[in-house]
Amino acid sequence: MAVAIIVKVDPVTPEKDKIRVAAEAIRAGKLVAFPTETVYGLGADAMNGEASRKIFEAKGRPADNPLIVHVADFEQLFQVAKDISDEVYKVVRTVWPGPVTFVLKKAPGVPKEVTANLDTVAVRMPAHPVALELIRQSETPIAAPSANLAGRPSPTTAEHVIEDLGDKVDVIIDGGPTFFGVESTIINVAVKPPVLLRPGPFTVEELRNFFPDLIVPEFAEGKEEAAIALAPGMKYRHYAPQKRMIVVENREAFRKAVETLSKSRKLIVLCSKEECENVKGENVTEIVLGSETNLYEIARNLFDSFRKVDKTEGDLAVIHSFPERGIGLAIMNRIRKASGFQIARSLEEAMRLAGD
Ligand code: TXA
Ligand code: MG
Predict the structure, then answer these.
(1) d(CA 120, CA 73)
(2) DSSP tag of 219
């Protein structure tokens, strides 16, 4: 395919005529990358199986990993999902638009490509003027995973999308950097009690206000691969730089690991602004993640930092952990997965993982 048409829009008040170009592409069964408040999505008409199949092809995504359907109003919700209890519907009305995806019973008419043959469908209403305007003008729900090549960090800017998919999509809407920088919270409400499938910007603490009996499985922390993949995407390596990255989950050990590992190699170090103060050494290249006093800033910079790892000199990266409160749980889930579960708690473990 030729190079994508890139349309720059105002993220707050998107120009309607510019969005029209993209909406026409969606209606014609083509692929459009667009910003949401979390990350950029790679969209196609969710009611068109053939169009949705192209998403898998462009990303190199396994066909058994279902997509999220994005809606702009509640009519579209009922077009794709059924059997929504009053209790769940009340919550949906309260938290949408926003970074929460609900797994619900699938309505007939949603193509099997979108849901990977499951009888459930993941749905969300994004809180982003560009995404909402695109869905409205397309007059159809839009199926969209994150607009990265499978396995790569999710894109938080149009440049990231161009890097991964510039020659594989028809239109890229550039609405600037996304707000949260990590993907939506996913919660399965097709079962009782509801189960958290992926932590995100809408925190567990907030969710518990609505679902006091919410189940938060261990894998939500990203500590282990789900034995039986509840969210099918969970079993695949995710968000990862191509280079090796080790997480050191103890600050004392982290500092020692940086010092020791950089003696024998060029080391890439991902650290908060505060922690970077403790990092020195000629062989060290720092990638600053943001201030520890604002975990939202860390989340916003995380995937871009993972991409920077691959562009920085050195074969090995180390990163420290963050508190697992609020959006911190989503941050740690992404960091642990991006490391391929190379997790150390001591200097010795870090050395062993580094092969020293
Ligand atoms: O913030 C987001 O959610 C972004 C933006 C574009 O909306 N989208 C996104 O999509 O992160 P993706 O494909 O990268 O992640 C979707 C996840 C996958 O892990 C998939 O397995 C899960 O949602 N999923 C989709 N349908 C499901 C279903 N019926 N049951 C369980 N998990 C499902
Ligand atoms: Mg993704």
Answers:
(1) 19
(2) G
- Supply the pLDDT for residue 17: 97
Comparing CA positions, the residue from 282, 286, 344, 274 lying closest to residue 317 is 286
Token readout for 209 is: 């206000």
Ligand 1: which residues within 6 Å by Cβ? 36, 38-39, 41, 65-68, 101, 103, 115, 118, 120-122, 126, 144-146, 183-184, 186, 197, 231-233
What pLDDT digit, counting tens, does each position of 219-267 carry? 777 665 544 445 555 555 567 788 999 999 999 999 999 999 999 999 9
Mean pLDDT of 159-187: 98
d(Cα 86, Cα 216) in Å, to the nearest integer?
23
Rounded Cα–Cα distance for residues 152 and 170 (Å) = 20
Q: What residue's CA is closest to ligand 1, atom 20?
A: 233
Nearest bound ligand to CA 198? 1
Alpha-helix runs per DSSP H in 183-279: 204-210, 251-261, 273-276
**244 alpha carbon – ligand 1 mean position (Å):** 25
Sorted by sequence, the CB contacts under 8 Å of residue 24 that are 6+ apart come out as none
CB 155 within 8 A of CB 164: yes
Whole-angstrom distance, CA of residue 192 vs CA of residue 139: 33
Q: Which of 6-20, 94-108, 175-189, 213-227 has the lowest mean pLDDT?
A: 213-227
For 142-159, write each residue's pLDDT tens digit. Answer: 999 999 999 999 999 999
The span from the CA of 182 to the CA of 9, in Å, is: 22
Work out the angle between the directed axes of helices 295-311 and 328-338 (0-180°, nearest 10): 20
3-state class (DSSP) for residue 255: helix
